[in-house]
Design brief:
Blueprint lengths: L2 H13 L1 H36 L12 H15 L1 H13 L1 H6 L1 H6 L5 H33 L1 H4 L6 H6 L3 H20 L2 H21 L8 E5 L10 E8 L2 E7 L4 H31 L1
Antiparallel strand pairs: 1-3, 2-3
Helix pairs in contact: 1-7, 2-3, 2-7, 3-7, 4-10, 4-11, 7-10, 10-11, 10-12
Amino acid sequence: MSAALQGLPRTVLRLHRTALLVWAAAVAALTGWLVWLNEVTAGSVLASLARCRHADMCRDVFAGLGYSEPTAWIGTLVCYSFLAVAAFAGGALIGRELESGTARLAWTQGVTPIRWLTAKLALPALAVTAGGTVLVLMYRWGWGAHRSLMGDRWSTGDVFVARGPLTVAYGLCALAVGTLAALLLRRTLAALGSAVAAMWLVNLLLTQYRADLWPALTRTSPKPFTLPAGAWQVREGRNAGGDFAVYHPASHFWPLHLVETGVVLALTTLVTTAAFLVLRRRAA
């Protein structure tokens, strides 16, 4: 193995250490925010709500929002972190080096294009996986620590993604999409914008068809009925047998989540393969 190839991971780390530090700081900040909400904010919110139960008129009736709203914002940031990954991959990681010509220079120093791209993707993929895993574990802890303050919004788009490995899958997919966009366009800004738009579209489509990824339940009754607590109602109406509702109970979270994770990882594999094929053709 050549000295150039051995030093490539170190070069990647040096070139993108700022992005790595920003990612680490973001993970640490969101983790610290969750710890603060659960160890400090939640206690005061619960105390305020307890006082309301013993008062005819209470000014703290909306105190629970001081916990649930910040936690929801954290879920949004965790969920859509893949957009930042797509921008980084399309712009700084691959696009800038192709546009400036430094990639071809590296290919003349004893490093094949395939090995170059493999080394370029390995460290970011590891960082996305490690950071995403930490965020998911911490968000799951924060979400479950005070369920009475959060409600049953498990089907909400950002919460659905942030509570499991789908967060990591979207991050890895964004890395692959950004890479392919850069290899196809070879312009930093164009690749950055295209990667972000493509990942936004992927998430939009999967969110729209998420309810169809696992068989839903149907309930029919001649009289009005109440669905189980935490149920995600997909649709409702009336038929010859009375009222009906199609829904996913809370127990369907993991089947739905894991199926979508598999879909995103399959897409990641296809896009990554396409990126290597494009690189091989253009470097020939």
